[in-house]
Amino acid sequence: MSNLPSEPEFEQAYKELASTLENSSLFEKHPEYKKALQVAAIPERVIQFRVTWEDDKGQVQVNRGFRVQYNSALGPYKGGLRFHPSVNLSILKFLGFEQCFKNALTGLSMGGGKGGADFDPKGKSDNEIRKFSVAFMRGLAKHIGADTDVPAGDIGVSPREIGWMFGAYRAEQNKWEGVLTGKGGNWGGSLIRPEATGFGLVYYVQHMIQYASGGQESFKGKRVAISGSGNVAQYAALKAIELGATIISLSDSKGALIATDEKGITPDLVNYIADLKVKRKQLTELAHSSEYKDKFNYIDGARPWVHCGKVDVVLPSATQNEVSGEEAEKLIEAGAKFIAEGSNMGCTQDAISVFEKHRKEKKGEAIWYAPGKAANAGGVAVSGLEMAQNSARLKWTSEEVDEKLKGIMANCFENCLATAKEYVPSAEGEFPSLVAGGNIAGFSKVAAAMKDQGDWW
């Protein structure tokens, strides 16, 4: 691919998967899968379009819109839409590539895709964001559909933007169908969808803790460091607190919030932060809050990892590459035993290498790492459940959806565990490699479906 422009995020994601497959026995048992990897690395389709919209001053603005339809062997393309100035094809290809294997691990009938625009919602009025969302959907509408491609929200795209885009799609196509997930609860959305990624992340880690402790431990009494302060971080924090954990950090793009008292970050503070995020405000606002300012340290321009003190569980839940190799070493020194990505590709390759080396050397005393394609699959899993409810014109209760989510995350963990044991033998007392198990299990399912359908042979 030397004739193509550099795509560092995508190249990192590809190399991470490819190296895992090459260092396992998969290609020995299935040498034909080398060709499958070559084919699966290229998206089925990449759509790029211009989005013109009018700002509040009556001036025409223009942005780039994208949709990477990566792989549909297992079902309609499925993956979020991101509105952020950093959006480019490299980032969307990395996210779409990861999405293929994440969706496969849910066990649901979903292919992989990702999209968005280089539009920055920050500093824009609600009216401007609405106008952009409608204009974006007009460009995207002809390429998606309930049985073709079902986008969802991502960074910069909340249920509000999903609503505006759904209305634009309905008007453009003259039909009501489950073409977007993350919809409003009274017009086709699923209960538990906002909570799903964070809840699913905690459910996955709960299985890690139980396996590592022989069923003797849970989240109860654990000190949990979380980055980010959006939906994933908020609901991971709330669920971990419900299960008896103490949350010691949250963060945003401006800095990190570190709890200073034994109660940690409480549900009240999480709800306060959720309200700030709805208003598109930063965590710095808390520094001026008389109610909360004495309960934490705010560290400007920092990530929480080297500031959180003793920690048991680490949940990166902000963005890609937010844990470096050096920070990985510091987390191990701080006593961390479990790290699972709530964000996509939250750890750099250097950090993953540190965690995997420690896992092999320290065996049962080591830190245990779980990749995002497995640990944060709960969000897209409930999106898949929303698709099922839309197809059947049904609405399940919160309890029904939550039970299905728990089952999906349990099956995902067991699949990663069993696949790792089969293809990457571990030494006595060594935790199986969940990153290898997730990569191999997700890739194998996609590759087998592609072969059955003649995409490679």
UniProtKB/TrEMBL annotation:
Q: Which Gene3D superfamilies match?
A: Glutamate Dehydrogenase, chain A, domain 3, Leucine Dehydrogenase, chain A, domain 1, NAD(P)-binding Rossmann-like Domain
Q: Which Pfam families does this one have? A: ELFV_dehydrog, ELFV_dehydrog_N
Q: Residues that bind NAD(+), according to the entry?
A: 197, 231
Q: Which Gene Ontology BP terms does the record give?
A: glutamate biosynthetic process
Q: Where is the signal peptide?
A: none
Q: Where is the active site?
A: 114
Give the SUPFAM superfamilies listed for this entry: Aminoacid dehydrogenase-like, N-terminal domain (SSF53223), NAD(P)-binding Rossmann-fold domains (SSF51735)
Print the keywords alphabetically.
NAD, NADP, Nucleotide-binding, Oxidoreductase
GO CC terms in record: cytosol
Record field: catalytic activity: L-glutamate + NADP(+) + H2O = 2-oxoglutarate + NH4(+) + NADPH + H(+)
Q: Where is this site: Important for catalysis?
A: 154
Record-listed substrate binding positions: 78, 99, 102, 153, 383
Q: Name one GO molecular function term.
A: glutamate dehydrogenase (NADP+) activity
Domain Glutamate/phenylalanine/leucine/valine/L-tryptophan dehydrogenase C-terminal stretches? 190-454
Superkingdom: Eukaryota
Q: Which family does it belong to?
A: Belongs to the Glu/Leu/Phe/Val dehydrogenases family.
Q: How does it assemble?
A: Homohexamer.
Provide the protein name.
Answer: Glutamate dehydrogenase
- Give the organism the record lists: Friedmanniomyces endolithicus
Recorded name of the encoding gene: GDH3_4
